Amino acid sequence: MKLNKLTITQAHHRLKKKEFSVKELTKDCLNEIKKQDSKINAFITVFEKQAIKQAEEIDKRIRVQGVDNLLTGIPLGIKDNILIKDTICTGGSQILKNYQASYDATVIKKLRQQGVVFLGKTNLDEFAMGSSTENSGFGPTKNPHNLEHVPGGSSGGSAAALAGQMCLGALGSDTGGSIRQPASFCGIVGIKPSYGRVSRYGLMAMASSLDQIGSLGSCVDDAAILLQAIEGKDSLDSTSKQSDYPIKIPELKSLKNFKIGLPKEYFIQGLDLEIKELIDKVIKKLQGQGVEFVEVSLPNTKHALACYYIIMPAEVSANLARYDGIKYGLSSAQGKDLLDVYLNSRSQGFGEEAQRRIMLGAYTLSAGYYDAYYLQAQKVRTLIKQDFERVWQQNIDCLLTPTTPTPAWKIGEKINDPLSMYLADVYTVSVNLAGLPGISLPAGKVNDLPVGCQLIGNHFQENKILQVAKTIEKAVFVGLTKNG
After folding, report:
1. What is the C-alpha R_g of the chain?
2. DSSP3 helix / strand / coil % (the chain, rounded to 5)
3. In the predicted model, is pLDDT for residue 332 greater than 90?
4. Phi, psi (degrees; rounded to nearest 5) at 23
5. For the residues 348-365, what does the mean pLDDT come to?
């Protein structure tokens, strides 16, 4: 068995027994990248020399003090909007193609302390704006399960790298589904944590009230191990919080007396019938284990996409204003005055989707439209949060939904129809608007393409959804993930 096919837990146990070195494990991953990535395009930058050097240093450390935690020596892919000091960090945009990060993101500092190996930076839709990783300034990423199809987005590079067995785990960011949707399309596990559980310091801001860094793993345990390593309050991020419920690696426990809600608004016209059949199988299996299912209502779900696509572009337009070609970003010296330099730098550096969202956001924040659009969207956001709060008051432990309404579409199929692309986020954006945790895990395949089911929890109740996810993985979908 090639070492790059191991789960994090398997690799940890075998490193502990000294069955192989971190350098050997890292080389197997790098060899897989060389073999596969010219077709998949999961990585923007590969740190071959640095990764091998890192691995050698960790091997020396292991010889002295042993394998001291679950992530020691584990090779990871990092989404290219998370800063790693002294490496190029592009955000998937040509405007930052030569930008070198001057500091580590907090999550990277934490992973360094754990002794991980950074294999490289993974591809993404430009500044995380997209649902297919076709909007990258460095070419589209392809789905390892079928190279004609998208891997999802915006963390498509991280999901494809993991599904293609080029790394053992990965970090992504999730603003409206950008971890869970590619996890679904690529047949892996992706967790979007509660807003505030993980520091955003060192994450390139897209929409600051929605963004969260999260983890992708080939199984539930792996995703939980990664999330456990990066969580916690950070003095450099005022939105981060110390939870009273730290992440635990889930155990297989009885789910008897568990109460799971089925939001009726998520099972309506537009959902692929074969995906619904797969979700129904999950429900029946869990009912057999004593889980009680209750139909619940989230009536403002119908407004969630419209609400999201007003708030998110508004925050995008503010956050991306800094990329002016002077202090940050691609600089164009062409133009008769400073305004021309700004305009030329931004029009040449930003892709179509980034420009579209900047303009939409600037419009909704402009005088005369702020109250009609942005302020109204914030009021609707409050109603969406209240919908979830009413559900939790019914003693519901978590919600079960599809992750996406369809399987992955073909590359190019929706690129010229932004509205159709936005509809792919219909089941994921509410979670971000409400700041809740969500996880996507494999639910089976439709036309040989993976699809996922989503579990949604109350604030900082990740451990509940991890426990349910572990049961689904073990009892329902044996063989779909690496550890079976």
Report:
1. 21
2. 45, 15, 40
3. no
4. -60, -40
5. 93
Alpha-carbon span 380 to 382, nearest angstrom: 5
What are the pLDDT digits (tens) for 51-68?
A: 999 999 999 999 999 998
Helices and strands of the chain, counted as H and E runs: 15, 11
Tell me which residue of 146, 224, 211 sits closest to 179, measured CA to CA. Answer: 211
Q: How confident is the model at residue 480 (pLDDT cuts 50, 70, 90)?
A: very low
The residue among 202, 313, 250 whose CA lies nearest residue 465 is 250
Q: Which carries the bigger pLDDT value, residue 429 or residue 418?
A: 429
CA distance 7 to 308: 35
The average pLDDT across 156-162 equals 98
Provide the number of structural domains found in the chain: 1
At 248, which CATH number? Answer: 3.90.1300.10
Give 481's pLDDT tier (boundaries 50, 70, 90): very low
- Residue 292 φ then ψ, to 5°: -95, 130
The model's pTM: 0.96
Q: Strand, helix or coil at 28?
A: helix
Average pLDDT taken over every residue of the chain: 94
pLDDT for res 327 = 76
* Cα torsion 51, 103, 224, 445: sign: negative
Could you tell me what percent of the chain has a pLDDT over 90? 87
Average pLDDT for 32-41 = 98
Judge whether 79 counts as a catalytic residue.
yes
Marked catalytic residue, from 79, 121, 414, 470: 79
75-79 and 117-122 strand pairing: parallel
Q: Which residues contact 228 (CB under 8 A, 6 or more apart)?
A: 246, 247, 248, 249
CB 319, CB 354: distance < 8 Å: no
178 is catalytic: yes
How many C-beta atoms lie closer than 10 Å to residue 256's C-beta?
9
Confidence of residue 325 (pLDDT cuts 50, 70, 90): confident
One of 93, 131, 136, 154 is an active-site residue; which one?
Answer: 154
* Domain ranges, residue 451: 1-484
Task: Check: CB of residue 465 under 8 Å from CB of residue 446.
Answer: no
178, 194, 199, 243: the active-site residue: 178
Contact criterion met (CB below 8 Å) for 111 and 199:
no
pLDDT band at 164 (very low <50, low <70, confident <90, very high): very high
> Which is it for strands 212-217 and 189-192: parallel, antiparallel or unpaired?
antiparallel
Contact 175, 206 (CB under 8 A): yes
Tell me, yes or no, if 199 is annotated catalytic.
Answer: no
Question: Average pLDDT of 185-212?
Answer: 98
d(CA 283, CA 277): 10
Rounded CA separation 65/73 (Å): 13
Q: Which residues contact 254 (CB under 8 A, 6 or more apart)?
A: 289, 290
